[in-house]
UniProtKB/TrEMBL annotation:
One of its GO terms (molecular function) is peroxiredoxin activity. The keyword Transferase does not apply. Keywords: Antioxidant, Oxidoreductase, Peroxidase, Redox-active center. Residues 8-171 form the Thioredoxin domain. Thiol-specific peroxidase that catalyzes the reduction of hydrogen peroxide and organic hydroperoxides to water and alcohols, respectively. GO terms for biological process: cell redox homeostasis. GO terms for cellular component: cytosol; mitochondrion. Belongs to the peroxiredoxin family. Prx6 subfamily. This is Thioredoxin domain-containing protein.
Amino acid sequence: MSTDRNPLRLGSIAPNFDAETTQGPIKFHDFIGNSWAILFSHPADFTPVCTTELGVVARLQPKFDERNVKVIGLSANGLESHQEWIKDINEVNNVEVKFPIIADADRKISTLYDMLDYQDLTNLDAKGIPFTVRSVFIIDPKKTIRLTLSYPASTGRNFDEILRVVDSLQLGDKNRITTPANWKDGDDVIVHPSVSNEEAATLFPGFKTVKPYLRFASQPGAKATTA
Ligand code: BEZ
């Protein structure tokens, strides 16, 4: 089946769009500029899990800033509703939401980004129209999609994990490394399979070979820990 739509695959360009947000109108690619971006949707305003999620994202704002990541939320409600709900998010979580939230009541952007849920009959608006699911897109400064994920309405996301992926991607873009399971900033990394042992000796002095295809090295640029 052929489609004109830009596929939302890792490595494809994140579709551009115009949107109304709680901080004014944006053109998405201009909003991203030279930063990284996290575009995340949630089912609806004034819902319990979403209220906790947006509180967590607001609290993590300094960590996104440190990493040059702009965060932008989206739900299928209007601006007025968003503005009222932000007051609740701030109050309940003792935070100040500083990132914009896209008003997508007509589902134009959520359709473009395939965020709508046609399966979960508990996630419909009063007219029976699907709300958005909990989608996340990590997008790099070239506007390339680097991560996609989709969670059900019933399960709040772990935003520390999203930050962890940003750390892994940014480190991997600067160094010829990958990161192992459960890796976190400061842990040893894996020498990229494309790096020969000769190159590794220069790039990662003291790297350790567990198997010819599994070589560990200290994280480039990590602060030395004192015993
Ligand atoms: C919630 O955020 O709690 C929620 C939203 C839609 C469906 C189910 C739960």
